[in-house]
Amino acid sequence: MRIAEEGLLQEGRWPEGLTVLAAAAGVLVQVQFTLPVDEAAIRLNLADPLVAIASPVLLLILGLRHRRELLQLAGTPLILAVLAATAALTVSLLTGRAAIHEWQAWALIKYAGWFVLLGYALFGAMLSAAGGLLSQQAVTGGVIGLQLLLFPVFCISMGLWLLWPVQYGFRLQGLADNPNAMALLCLAGFSLAIGFHDQMVNRIGGFGAAAVTGALAAMVLLTRSIAGALALILLVFAVLLFRLLPLKPIVMAFVACMLLWFAPQRLQDDVANNVVVKTYMIVSESKHERAQGFLTGSRVGRLESYRLAFDQWLANPVFGAGLGAHMAAQPKSMSPDVMPVQVHNTPLWLAAEAGLFGLLSFTALFGVIAWRLGRTFLLQPPQFEGRAIVIAASLTLLSAVVAAMFHEMLYQRILWFMLGLALPYTLPAAWVGQSARKSAVSGSK
Q1: pTM value?
Q2: Is 4 exposed, middle or buried (0-12, 13-18, 19+ CB in 10 A)?
Q3: What b/e string do you get for 223-262 counting C-beta neighbours within 10 Å, with b at 16 or more?
Q4: Neighbours of 439 (CB within 10 A)
Q5: Rg of the chain, C-alpha, whole Å
Q6: Can you say how many angstroms the Cα of residue 305 is from the centroid of all Cα atoms in its chain?
Q7: What is the pLDDT of residues 236-253, one digit of tens each?
Q8: In this structure, what is the dihedral angle of CA atoms 219, 225, 226, 229, given to the nearest 10 degrees?
C-alpha cells in the first residue's frame, strides 16, 4: 500500500488542501453541544457537516484513483466486527420497538449516532490515507492548539456558561458540555502529544514539548473528572512501561503539569465561590442545599440506574431489553425525586439494551482494533511512518476504555476519529509498501 509521508494524493494542491482540512477537523471535532428533543437530547458537533461532506468526497476520489489500496484499508476481521455491531444495534432497536410499542427518541438517536461514529472513523481513515503524516500532524496541531488556546479559560472558569456547574458541584463544563467528555478530549490531546513528541521537539524544543505535554495533562485534572484522572494515571504508566518517551521529558512534563495545575485549580475554586455562587444565589435558594440536593439525587440516580440495567439484562440476557428501554423504564422504577440518567458504565449499558449479542459484538470490534494497533506497534521499528498516530490512537482507546467503566463513552466522536486516523497504518500491506519504498531509497543511494 503506497501511503507515504504525503499520503496517496500527492500531486497538485491536494497536500495543501488536505492539511487545511485536517487542521480544521482537529479544531471543530472538539466543539459540541446538546440539543433537547422531546424527552431526549441530540449531541451535535461542529465537525459534523465537515465529516458528512468530506468523507464521501475523499472516498470517491481515492476509490477512483487507488481502488486496490483502498480495499486493503479495512481488512476482513474489522469489516465483520463492524457488521456484527451494527446488527446487534439493529436487533436492539427492533426489540425495543416491539417491547414498548412505539419508537423511543433515545433509541432512534442512539441508532443513528452509531452511523455518525462510523462516519468519523471513515473520515479519519480517508484523511490519513489521502494526506499521510502531513494530515496527522495537522490534526495534532488543531487538537492541541485549541486546547492550549483555551487553557487560560480552564484556569479561571468552572463553566460560567449558564451557571449550571454550581448545581453540579463546581465541576468544569466545557466545549463537550460535560466534564467527562471534556476529559477524554484532553486525554486525546495528551495522547497526540506523546505520539508526536519527536516532531514537537523538532519544532519547539525539548522544554517546549514538555511544557505542552504537561499543560495537556493539567487540563485533564482541571476538568475534575475522576475517570479522566484515573485514565491519565494509566496512560503515564503505559508511557513508562513501553518506554514511549525517555525519562527526562517525562520528568519535565510531570513538573510542568504540577506547576500548571496547582494554582489554576485553587483559582477555579475562588472563582466558583466568589463569583459564580454569589451570582447564582441572587436567583436561587441556598447554594449548599441546592448543590448537595443535586449531587445526592445524581448519586442515587446512578445506583438505581445500575440496578435497573442489571435487572433488564437478567430478564433479557441474549438480545437485551432494546435500545431506549433503560431510559423509558427509569421514571417507572425510580423514586420521583431522582433524575433519570444513562447507565454510567458502557459494558453494562450494552448488556442491558443489546444483551450478550451486543456486548460480545462490541467487545470483538474493539478487540480487533486493539489487536491491529498493538501488532503494528510491536512489530514495526521506531522509524515506521505510522508509529506516532498508532501510539496516539492506542492511548486514546485506552483512555476511553478506562472512562467507559464509569461513564458512557462509546459515542465520543474524538475516539472514533483517532482510531480512523491510525487504521490505514495497521495492516501488513502498509508495512510492506513502506519497507519497499525505504529499500528503493537506500538502493538508489
Answers
A1: 0.87
A2: middle
A3: bbbebbebbbebbbebbeeeebbeeebbebbeebbeebbe
A4: 10
A5: 23
A6: 24
A7: 999 999 999 999 999 999
A8: -20
